[in-house]
């Protein structure tokens, strides 16, 4: 952000693009980078905002219920992942990300599902980059992760995202969930 502020001060022409900035956050973004009309910067009116519809008709949200007394959550998740793997195998492939709220659960589901895992303790930067590379290139099919994976990752082959627990931050969920329909 500070780098952007320096570019604004130098009156550099810029285009800032995002798929996740809420209209309510535009003023804060402008203030942080010193955009004109945000109380800081050069000539008022030099900033133009463009918005487009962010609704994705190809994204479907579904809640799967299970009986805690009769079913094991891990087995319910595994069955769902298997079902989706079969569906998308027939449709030419696709990736599945299972989001968990703790590192321990990420590791547990990765072991059970035979997938790659991503969280803050998964290893050195090189290890993390390797997981992200497989996600981006479509070479891995099932990934388990904390929300650390969700931000700033462009992965065009994600077709299904499973949230094992209730989402804690709606903004993170919106950022993560949009990926499943990004490329159709």
From TrEMBL:
GO terms for biological process: double-strand break repair via homologous recombination. GO terms for cellular component: chromosome; cytoplasm. Its EC number is 5.6.2.4. PANTHER family: DNA HELICASE RECQ FAMILY MEMBER, RECQ HELICASE, PUTATIVE (AFU_ORTHOLOGUE AFUA_6G14720)-RELATED. InterPro entries: Helicase_C-like, P-loop_NTPase. This is DNA 3'-5' helicase. GO terms for molecular function: 3'-5' DNA helicase activity; four-way junction helicase activity. It comes from the Eukaryota. Residues 72-184 form the Helicase C-terminal domain. PROSITE patterns: HELICASE_CTER. Transmembrane segments: none annotated. It is an enzyme of class 5 (isomerase). Belongs to the helicase family. RecQ subfamily. It catalyses: Couples ATP hydrolysis with the unwinding of duplex DNA by translocating in the 3'-5' direction.
């Amino acid at each position: 952000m500070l780098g952007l502020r320096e570019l604004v001060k130098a009156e550099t022409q810029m285009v800032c693009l995002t798929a996740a900035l809420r209209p309510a956050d535009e003023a804060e973004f402008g203030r942080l980078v010193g955009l004109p009309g945000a109380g800081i910067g050069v000539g008022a009116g030099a900033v133009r905002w463009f918005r487009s519809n962010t609704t994705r008709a190809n994204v479907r949200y579904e809640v799967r219920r299970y009986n805690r007394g009769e079913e094991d959550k891990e087995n319910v998740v595994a069955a769902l992942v298997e079902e989706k793997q079969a569906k998308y195998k027939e449709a030419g492939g696709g990736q599945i990300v299972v989001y968990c709220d703790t590192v321990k659960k990420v590791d547990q589901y990765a072991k059970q599902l035979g997938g790659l895992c991503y969280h803050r303790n998964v290893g050195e930067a090189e290890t993390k980059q390797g997981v992200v590379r497989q996600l981006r290139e479509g070479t891995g099919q099932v990934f388990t992760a904390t929300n650390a994976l969700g931000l700033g990752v462009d992965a065009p082959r994600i077709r299904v995202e499973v949230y094992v627990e209730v989402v804690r931050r709606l903004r993170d969920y919106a950022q993560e969930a949009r990926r499943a329909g990004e490329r159709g």
